[in-house]
Amino acid sequence: MDFESRDNVVIWIIANQVTRRSLAPMQLSYYRGLHFNTDKKLVGNMRGNNQHKTREEELPHNEVIPIIGSTASRLAERYNVSRATIERDAQIANAITAIGMSSPDAKKEILEGKTRISRKKLMELAGAPDDEIVEVAAEIENGTFVKNKPGASKQDEANPPADSSQIEMLPLEKEFHKVTGEFSIELRVLENKGDTDALRMAFQSYIVSLEKMRSSI
Question: What is the pTM of this model?
Fold first, then answer.
């Protein structure tokens, strides 16, 4: 197959990956975010090339690139999620990619769900210094990463689990908690903004996720 650039190849691969029903929520977030970052880069290149041609070849001022809406809005509609979700996924993808540059094994651990790291932590790492990312990647790789670092909550300290079996969840239960947790965060953000259209899309996306889980039983 012929492609115009490596970025076009990445988008083609992502478009095929997200159609797989077996993808975990973190994997979906990563691919959606990677799609956003790559698509935005392509759009920026197109605009840059258009501006260059306008200066050098004196093209008509009304010549524009046929792009409808923002990158986040277009992908939100495509993946049936809110724009806020796409923007958060972009930060998550940046963090996972940065971790992968330091340790491919750590990136694999995250995407396969073998290391429990919150979306909030990944979003913080998206803008963190390189040395902090390297440190987290090393901890994930050697198995010493603690999800709620630097310490557990007061409630956890007051009510520690009697044994490790109390924190083990079955696959379906684990997926439900991840989907519901992500939805709760998104709901809080959108409700504070008063964005009713995005709220409707978020609820629809949540319903679709639950329906997929029900269908898998």
Answer: 0.57
